[in-house]
């Protein structure tokens, strides 16, 4: 089993005379010792020292116990089952709102704070780390042109632009510079690292669909970027992330992975939440669904000794279970039953509207049920648009 250490950027200062206790600097990195570093591992680490120094001279690292703890939790599952567990890995969070991650030879991985806050699950964070670990495990850095030398200044500069500006297209500049220099060899590396990441996710028992959802998000960013691939000189006819997502989707199909259910597990696209809300000065409960746009499904009333929030939570649980089972829009139906109405998922009731609920909203039972049904269908439509990049 691999041990994991949170390493601080500061240390206790030595002194011959007693003095007040000094508070150590908070940790700014997660270090995971390998199972037994090889000479090759140590050589790669030494060769990357200059690049590490150049980058860390210009950017500020985050000393956030919660973020580092999350990295620790995810990385400790990934490293022992990755393609190169002998290497000691050092992972740091860069204080930038941009959505970026990159790796260097020697086991160095950098993730921006913005990206860590943007991923919607530990599975998606594992996909980001798994991809970067894949580059390291496959020795992509040393295989590049001038592997034994420091990165070209243009590439280091582009990386810094990406992490400091917070602009999505800056990350594309890094990608395109590297691809142009390597005559598209870097393109193959990205595809290889994706596939290696999928395998690592599976071995670590994370949902491999997270690699697909991360790439789909990157593809949306590329489509929204004002800089086209042609302007960047890559000669590509479509964004790289789109191709990468297609390759991962093909791999998942070969593994018989339920992509629909998996996407709902690792993202918020169809997640159902129950939360307290204030309506006209009164605290009520509301069930919502979907992301990035959220749809209001239902506001239950207290009933049979059960508080409104408890009812909302029970409804959310049933709806989430139904979503994770892979239901589609055509599986959801509305049924009127006397003085009450039911929303059914594959014939099973997941939400029941009673007269008390209608009274809370100043509407009829049928109107409240139809509104709930419509909100759920709107979430399915949003999911479909995101899936097809519309």
Protein topology:
Layout lengths: L4 E4 L18 E6 L6 H9 L1 H10 L6 H14 L10 E6 L6 E4 L3 E5 H6 L3 H16 L2 H4 L9 H13 L2 H14 L3 H19 L5 H16 L15 H15 L4 H8 L5 E8 L2 E8 L5 E4 L9 H17 L7 E6 L2 E6 L2 E6 L1 H7 L3 H23 L3
Parallel strand pairs: 3-5
Antiparallel strand pairs: 1-2, 2-3, 4-5, 6-7, 7-8, 9-10, 10-11
Helix pairs in contact: 3-5, 5-9, 5-10, 7-8, 9-11, 10-11, 10-12, 14-15
Structural commentary:
This protein has 2 domains: 5-10 and 23-266, no CATH class; 272-387, no CATH class. Helices cover 49% and strands 16% of the residues. It contains 15 helices and 11 strands. Helix 7 (153-165) runs antiparallel to helix 8 (168-181). Mean pLDDT is 84; it is low at 1-17, 167-185 and 229-238.
Rounded to an integer in angstroms, the radius of gyration calculated over CA atoms is 25 Å
Supply the number of structural domains: 2
According to DSSP, the number of beta strands is 11
SS class: alpha+beta
Q: H/E order of the elements?
A: EEHHHEEEHHHHHHHHHEEEHEEEHH
Shape: elongated
- Strand residue content: 15-25%
Low-confidence stretches: 1-17, 167-185, 229-238
* Strands side by side in the biggest sheet: 1-2-3-5-4
- The count of helical stretches stands at 15
- For the termini, the CA-CA separation is 45 Å
- On the 0 to 100 scale, the average pLDDT is 84
Helix content: 40-55%
Largest beta sheet, briefly?
Answer: 5 strands, mixed
Summarize the structure.
This protein is an alpha+beta fold and 390 residues long. It has helices spanning 39-47, 49-58, 65-78, 113-118, 122-137, 140-143, 153-165, 168-181, 185-203, 209-224, 240-254, 259-266, 308-324, 355-361, 365-387, and strands spanning 5-8, 27-32, 89-94, 101-104, 108-112, 272-279, 282-289, 295-298, 332-337, 340-345, 348-353.
